Please model this.
Amino acid sequence: MEKVTVNVGKTLQGYSASVDILPGWVLGIEGSFDEFKEELQKSIDIYIEWAKEDGEEYPLLFDQEYEFEYKFNIESLLCCYDGILSRSAIARLTGIGINEIQLEHYI
Model:
């Protein structure tokens, strides 16, 4: 199965994304990461559908099975795991001495 890398960023009220193999395509939504993933799939589907209708080129891997591989910046990664892992747990997992206050500064 092919992987499509999605560059994820955090906005004030949601998430944004770009996909390197789709120049000029961007997505921004308000809401949770689960809502973001749903809108991401819908947006890609519409993009490909319109490209086909207009006879425009698009990456052919979208004609086969693929899955998204999320590439987070540090802020979006920390926000995505809010409610799943506490800041203190993340601080312990880093193993490099990043404390909770420093994590908050990253966000």
Notes: The chain has a mean pLDDT of 84. The chain has two domains: 1-72, 74-107. Strands lie at 2-10, 14-19, 26-30, 66-72.
